[in-house]
Amino acid sequence: MGRAFEFRKERKFKRWAKMAVQFTRLGKEIVMAVKDGGSNPDANSRLRTAMQNAKAVNMPKHTVEAAIKRATNKDESNYEEIVYEGYAPHGIAILIETATDNTNRTVANVRSYFNKTNGTLGKTGSLDFIFSRKSVFRFDPGEMEIDELELELIDAGLEDLYVEVDETGKDIGVIHTSFEDFGKMQKALEEKGIPVISAKLERIAESTSEVTEEQAADVFKLIDKLEEDDDVQAVYHNMAE
């Protein structure tokens, strides 16, 4: 089956081991949300969203509460959000969102990952023509009429609405809006009582690059190193599926 198959299988097992890292990232997001707008989720939409995303990945309630409590401590340092951009092997664009309390450590680590995998770290803004920032909402469509829902959400800034299948075979509704319309769409979904699974600001590749399975394995080596770093919140690429 080849090296690429083995590499993909290895990534699957690694994904199962990333739950703790995922909790760490959500914990940081909760801390930043509380520092930004207070500990009351009813009055802090960013915190409300972070708690919603934590619930979506089965983050324990006591872990969420501990993060909120920790954030209210004045001695708890805040995190600086920094975006890094570059190219993996075979010309694949990579964009990394980080949240760090030590920028020197973070940039040194990110640079080393690129160097070790024959990638190139670029300048901030160098990939603006490839990635656009979108608001992405995922929800349980249930028995909803998607075409009808699409018409109802146009005024809230709807740009795209489709259904995808998750790893368990369940249908998941996906909504795209502009970065600026995040709050408007979030409010519209809440008012309609639509069960939102997650709500995030994501980087969407406007164009993709085709690679072979062997080349994809090279790119995933860099992506894996980045995703394993505690300072990294999200990694995006323009490699075609």
Automatic annotation (TrEMBL):
SUPFAM superfamilies: YebC-like (SSF75625). GO terms for cellular component: cytosol. It is found in: Cytoplasm. InterPro entries: Integrase-like_N, TACO1_YebC-like_2nd/3rd_dom, TACO1_YebC_N, Transcrip_reg_TACO1-like, Transcrip_reg_TACO1-like_dom3, YebC-like. GO terms for molecular function: DNA binding. The keyword Coiled coil does not apply. Residues 4-73 form the TACO1/YebC-like N-terminal domain. The keyword Calcium does not apply. Its main location: cytoplasm. GO terms for biological process: regulation of DNA-templated transcription. Belongs to the TACO1 family. PANTHER family: TRANSCRIPTIONAL REGULATORY PROTEIN YEBC-RELATED (PTHR12532:SF6), TRANSLATIONAL ACTIVATOR OF CYTOCHROME C OXIDASE 1 (PTHR12532). This is Probable transcriptional regulatory protein SAMN05421813_11156. It comes from Daejeonella rubra.
